[in-house]
Amino acid sequence: MTGSTHAHADAPHHPVFVGKVREQLDALFPKYPTKQACLLPALWMVQEARGWISPAAIAEVAEVLGLTPAYVRGVATFYTMYHLHPVGRHFIQVCGTSPCHLCGSDEVLKAILGATGCGELGATSADGRFTVVEVECLGACGFATPVLIDDDFHDSVTPERVAGILARYP
Amino acid sequence: MGYPHPPHPRETVVLSQYFGDAEARTFDGWVKRGGYQALKKALAMTPDAIIEELKASGLRGRGGAGFPTGLKWSFMPKNDGKPHYLVCNADESEPGTFKDREIMRWTPHQLIEGCAIGAYAIGAERCYIYIRGEFTEPWKVMTAAVEEAYAKGALGGNVFGTGKRIDIVLHRGAGAYICGEETAMMNSIEGKRGNPRIKPPFPAQAGLFGMPTTINNVETLSTSSHILNRGAAWYKALCLSNPKSTGTKLFSVCGHVMRPGNYELTMGFPMKDLIHDLAGGMRPGRRLKAVIPGGSSVPIMTAEEAEGALCDYEGIVEKGSMLGSAGFIVMDDSTDIVYELRRLAKFYAHEPCAPCPTCREGTAWTTKIIQRSQRDQGKKEDLDLLLDLSDQMTGRTICVLSDSCAAPIVSGIKKFPEEFEAYLSRAKAPALAAV
Amino acid sequence: MSDLVNVTIDGVQISVPKGTPIIEAAKQAGVLVPHYCYHPSLPSPAVCRMCLVEVEKAPKLVPACVTTVADGNVIHVNNDKSKRARESVLEFLLINHPLDCPICDQAGECELQDYTFQEGRAGTRYSDYAKRYNPVEDFGPDVLYVANRCILCTRCVRFMDNVAGDAVLNVSERGDRAFIGIDPDHLLDHPWAGNVVDLCPVGSLISKDFLHKARAWDLDKTASVCTGCSQGCNTMIDTRDDVVVRLRPRPNLDVNRHFICDEGRADYRWMNRGDRIEAPLVRDGAKLTPTDWDHAVERLGALAKTARRVVILASGRASTESLGFVRRMVDGATVTAAIKVPLGPEAPLAGVPNLALRKERVPNLAGAGLLGYGAEWPAAVAAVKGADLVVVLDAVLDDADVAALAGAAAVVVIGTVDDDRLAGATLILPSTNVAEENGTFVNRDHRVQRYFQAKPAPGLARPAWWIAAEATHAARGLAAPATAAEAFAALGAMVPALAGLSYADLGHTGRVVSPTTAGAAR
After folding, report:
1. Are residues B259 and B319 in the same domain?
2. Are A109 and A72 members of one domain?
3. B357 contacts C49? CB cut-off 8 A
4. Tell me, what CATH number does A107's domain have?
């Protein structure tokens, strides 16, 4: 629950919203009538910049948008795509909902877990390269099995294609 | 990535005409294909005239509810001095549905044009397109297209020199099925947890940021340009069965078919032909067992029901299910219905926002009961329990997520009781390891 | 009247203003709609689904908390359909609930327990599954969060956000993994944060101060008024075996709505002090001798009657009745009367207008004012020198104050707590504290509010008004009131603002008087 909260106490937090990222955020403000509405985009910016959203980053987002850290945390935990803990260099999401399951997503997932060396869902491989999760419906049921690696969408993945695809992610 | 199949002769391609055609993604390419004519035409009409045209066309919401679009637009207050908002629902998350993704990937300007027409018709100067976070490719395509549309004067403070302002803002979701529910989506845009809101007030009274708001699906808005171009009469005439269901619709077909993909059909098309002809039928040696037609949130249909159904709002209701978002999950006779329903229940247990106990606890409990049956730990009374829980989960919560979980489960138990009993009587080997 | 609508609730026909939520209309029909997330002082999210009721002709059950009545509605709260819906909500709430009522402080005043007893299922159908488990969290100075008991009604989150304006709580995660989260770098230490414990309908947010102190069914509850400041928040004193164990807010929409501040909540231990004066002590030469009241009031009356310059040093916690009768006792003399007013920082509750922990940390500043007591303490202490008589009415004196007493010819202490420094007094007379008597305070808005006796007085202690009135009777033959009600009614003769008012007029929520006009004229 709040177990990870003091991790940031050791490592100093370098602000995310400076320079280019700050400009990006400032450019969003006129597009919404409230600053609060920029919360989801701001969290995305943090994740893009840092790979995950640390408690210190949550506090920074809160500060920048005039919200409380508790509020921001409540919102961030609602959405499954925000990483509130560090993840591997490449984050792999494999669809496992019924339509993909019908088409063999279990085998694809097994192949990916094996090839990445992650072993189990949610774990990060020992070399820090991959984290693999099974997700609910990626919205590409006609292209089973879809696999999202970072921002790259791979459709119609079969166990045979796994090794070739992973090779592109050093 | 490409579009998986060339149009079938029996399709009526309107929305999907340029799927797979990379040039159609660009502004110029879209204009070359007749794009933005409808928007120019719209801007010369009064908003009321556009709404009347939409009403006359018979277009109904393509997101799942099937509410008449023109009527929805007409609910927006007039001259109230408040900012109005259009929200385009591109949070396509309903298992089995993948049509909006293709519209955005291949024809982003089709959607932008539709949004601009919709915004103008309801008196909005700003439209938010809420794209689900997982749609990284559609996001990139849409981002580029919106930028281009601004550069070419199709969006901004002076749309095509008319002096009218229409802005489009792309808003990225971050992984929450429930945000596809319109009031949850508004909360999400406002930077809140995606909890659905109590209605009333309805969005047209007090929606996004408390202002009058209309929420439409990607496909619905995309269709509007074609109706303005070709006339309501043309659209209304696209009808093979019930006159209440008009036009074309993208049907997503997935699961156990040879050619999964999107098929654009005139409303009222026989489902049997869609599955067995257009989508290529079952794998060799396999027979159709069941179809969940509306995305996963509707009752499951037996092969017999599916093969006798017509693909429109009324035709599928007649056969005991609902059209929904028209994502057909097709299952052949190799399918373990119990296993798939458990998988669906798990999906629904993963997605509740939290507040309503009925949904939060009900979906998780439902999943556990089915899970237990597959671990050889099921009990005779579990089926009655599932039916009773599903009954409690229907019509009791703020939104319909728990209803959506209950619908396939109840129908699955009623239509395939022997599959559940096989597990419960231990006649079938457990599908899951015991814990 | 056109702004009234007629509705029928469980067969009872009532007229209520248009726009009334069903749940409030039902109260007026004498029907309680069970609920969790709804609270009259918070915005309604309609999430608990407990208050679903059937409105005839509506397609689905509707939440009574956000659905307003419409003319002609026929509403069923206790028919099979509505009851079945509640039974199922209760079942869903209980499947992951630890059922640890035997060790839960909320047991006995738990709405989950009560409603389950009333209309829940007798047994569970959620057998053989492990229950969800989350550890207990320390939220702040006086609040523990027991996540396993939480039903996610979000009252606490809404209170901190919408009322306290300090959004340190949230709902974290979603679905059946959800729990109430707190900002890891903050505590629930807002001056009004303790209200989340009262707002929590179950045993999820609990008070550390009250932890395992008493079972709810062993508590006696007495309506009272907080003595912490001049706001006059209405409270409930909970006693167990005549010991005050807890103070909680008592609703008064005009004063404190449903809340009290943490300082007021914690301000009760002094009520239980053991070092009390238990018998009247009268000076016989060099020593003080215990005696009975007849003798003591005679001595007091004699002193009061002959004194020509009198100083009264009173506590701001003294009741209006006591202040009045002590003052009347020395009528005819030249009197300097003051109360001691400790000061502290003001702490408003942002979401409720005119509600704050006030700077003046005494409950009866306005009452004292009406009765001619000033707040100029140093001047009053200075006036002691050369006085014939000083009456110390339960005031807490510092050493300088005590030293000043040597300048007076005679000192009478009417007080609660034994104080060695006052051993030189002529009379030491035991009086009751706020938990041991009936009385009134007048708050800063001149609202006269009653408080009630919560526990017996120690030894021979008596309310100060009784002591003063009996002394006056003994010395001058004036009639003495026998009860606090009579004492209050008699105050009208001393203060025009209270004229004609009785305890019955005050009710349980008090009555505002004008300091410049007669009470009876209102």
Report:
1. yes
2. no
3. yes
4. 3.40.30.10
pLDDT tens for residues C113-130?
A: 999 999 999 889 998 899
Write down which residue in B233, B267, B295 finishes a domain: B233
Q: Which residue of B has its CA nearest to A28?
A: B169
Do A101 and A155 sit in the same domain of this protein? yes
In tens, the pLDDT along C438-495 reads 999 999 999 999 999 999 999 999 999 999 999 999 999 999 999 999 999 999 999 9
Q: How far apart are CA A125 and CA A147, in angstroms?
A: 18
For residue C369, give the amino acid letter: G
Chains touching B (3+ CB pairs < 8 Å): A, C
- Convert the pLDDT of each residue in C381-422 to its tens digit: 999 999 999 999 999 999 999 999 999 999 999 999 999 999
H-helix or E-strand spanning residue C83: helix C80-95
Domain check: are A35 and A74 in the same one? yes
Sign of the torsion angle spanned by Cα atoms B255, B259, B264, B266:
negative
Q: How many domains does chain A have?
A: 2
Please tell us whether the domain made up of C122-272 is placed in CATH 3.30.70.20: yes
Q: Do C92 and B377 touch (CB under 8 A)?
A: no
The burial class, CB within 10 Å (0-12 / 13-18 / 19+), for B2 is exposed
Mean pLDDT of C59-88: 96
How far apart are the CA of C174 and the nearest CA of chain B, in angstroms? 5
pLDDT tens digits along B331-348: 999 999 999 999 999 999
- ipTM of predicted complex: 0.94
- What is the number of structural domains in chain B? 3
Structure pTM?
0.94
- Going by C-alpha positions, the residue among A127, A169, A129 that lies closest to residue A149 is A169
CA–CA separation, B169 and C522 (whole Å): 61
CATH number of the structural domain C4-92: 3.10.20.740
Residues in A closer than 8 angstroms to B97, CB to CB, are: 139, 141
Range of the domain at B386: 337-424
Taking any CB pair shorter than 8 Å as contact, residues of chain C touching chain A are: 134-135, 137, 147, 161, 166-174, 179, 181-186
Cβ pair A55:C185 closer than 8 A: yes
A43 in B contact zone (CB under 8 Å):
yes
B105 contacts on A by Cβ (under 8 Å): none
- Do residue B353 and residue C85 have CB atoms under 8 angstroms apart? no
Residues 6 or more apart whose CB falls under 8 angstroms from that of C411 comprise C389, C390, C392, C405, C422, C424, C425, C426
What pLDDT, on a 0 to 100 scale, did the predictor assign at position B5? 81
**CB contact (8 A) between residue B354 and residue C93:** no
How far does chain A reach from its first CA to its final CA, in angstroms? 33
Three-state DSSP state, C6: strand
**Domain span holding position A16:** 1-86
With 70 as the cut, is the pLDDT of residue B307 above it?
A: yes
| CB < 8 Å to A141, chain B | 95-98, 252, 254-255, 260, 327, 329
Bridging pattern class, strands C427-430 and C411-415 = parallel
CATH architecture of structural domain C281-517:
3-Layer(aba) Sandwich (3.40)
Contact call for residues C143 and C205 (beta carbons, < 8 A): yes
